[in-house]
Amino acid sequence: MVAVMTFGVTHLFAQEWTKAQLEVWQVVEESWTCWKAGDIAGELAIIHPKYQGWSTEEPVPLSKETLSQLYYSMKGNLKLESYLLNPARIVVLDDAAVVDYFFRYTVSFTWGDQKKQQEGYGKMAKFYVREGGKWMLLGDMSVHEENVKE
């Protein structure tokens, strides 16, 4: 069913992307792949040292250092089970890019013997800069909703 849903949604949003747009989108996908694999170092390698990211859960934007601490503190208790990404818009101008996309995910939380699943969905705007030929996440903003399952 997920494969059918993925094909259907991907097919609906299919667009022709330039080589530069595809390069940036590959970095977005790599980030989610790292998150699913629990590869915090891989995820942080994509993030620019001057990163500022803001989500609906945080009162102020997070720095790369704060995000790193958050990732490592959650590593043993949080696992990304599945996700679906759909790009809406990718704009590349020289060494800067903006990616807007829709996401859906399922994560599991474990505390001792308790395990809960959470489903979420939302929209993300990511801002990248290219330094030394590598696209780095400089900032992002997400708006999403979550549903916790007991």
Which runs of at least 5 residues are low in confidence (pLDDT < 50)?
Answer: 1-12
Name the CATH architecture: Roll
- Determine the number of helices (DSSP H or I, runs of at least 4 residues): 4
What order do the strands of the largest sheet run in, or round the barrel if closed? 2-1-6-5-4-3
Radius of gyration from CA coordinates = 16 Å
Which strand-content bin applies to the residues? over 45%
CATH class reads Alpha Beta
* DSSP strand count: 6
Mean pLDDT: 88
Main beta-sheet strand count, sense and barrel state: 6 strands, mixed
Number of domains: 1
Order of helices and strands: HHHEEHEEEE
Distance N to C terminus: 23 Å
- Briefly note the CATH topology name: Nuclear Transport Factor 2, Chain: A
Give a short synopsis of this structure.
31% of the residues lie in helices and 51% in strands. By secondary structure, the protein is of the alpha+beta class. The chain has a six-stranded mixed β-sheet with strand order 2-1-6-5-4-3.
How would you characterize this protein structure?
This protein is 31% helix and 51% strand. With 150 residues, it is an alpha+beta fold. It has a single domain, classed as Nuclear Transport Factor 2, Chain: A, CATH 3.10.450. It has helices spanning 2-12, 19-37, 40-45, 64-74, and strands at residues 47-54, 62-63, 78-93, 96-111, 114-131, 134-149. The longest helix is centred in the first third of the chain and has 19 residues, at 19-37. The protein contains 4 helices and 6 strands; from the N terminus they run αααββαββββ.
